[in-house]
Design a protein that fits this description.
5% of the residues lie in helices and 66% in strands. By secondary structure, it is mainly beta. It has a twelve-stranded antiparallel beta barrel with strand order 1-2-3-6-7-8-9-10-11-12-13-14. The protein starts with 5 loop residues before the first helix and ends with a strand.
Length: 263
Amino acid sequence: MRPRSKAAFISFLAVISLTMFQDPARAGAWLQKKGHGLLILSTTMLSGDKVFDTDGRPFSIPRYNRFDADAWLEYGLTDQFTLVLQPALRSVRVAKPYDLRYTGFGDSSFGLRIGLWSSSDTVFSVQPMVRVPGGPLLAGTHVQTEIRLLYGHSYWLGAWPAFIDTEFAYRFGGGVLPDEAHSDVTLGVRPRPDTMVMAQMFGTFAFIRTEGFYASGWEYKAAVSLVWDFARNWSVQAGGVATIAGANTLRERGYFAAIWKRF
């Protein structure tokens, strides 16, 4: 099925595509020490003129452009509890004949990362989150909740320090929003003490419980980025992201940049 009316197209964008992307600049399973934190200010630019249909085949739609500005804040309340906040701004434009525009608040989240077990090189944590919707064009007006299990492990790749971060989450939708299952993996390696290369994969599976434009959807996004520590406690990140496969979802491509401040 393909969108033929403006109402169907808006529903398609809101219910499926705009709920399925995770910020590639966010942190992982490790907790912040008491009184310490991390602030990541990121911008993401995405665009696309194709949609993957039910069988995973792309078809053309009017061009879609999206700009996100997010702040990801982690703060150690104790050594076992890390506060997590993510306010967001978003701008979306869809070309004619729909000619849709939105600029304002995006979906914002807050929650707590709780340490379950850790050793010198491994950590398990859990992260319940609440997601507050932005504009109704983008994601309805219902608050969502999420529970995320996180695993992090640091190791040596030859002479280079490296890590893997694996996360599994289930997000409970509200109203017309689908429930979503997430599977996210990040691999990082430091070929130099001041430089980290990251490769990431974001998998999302959406399950709509009420009648909507599509019954379900899924996607895989891949991201590659470089993080450079240009000063003590300061880093800058830049990279690219693309949808590599999916069904009933937008095929997006774009770039992101971020600045990290540890305190």
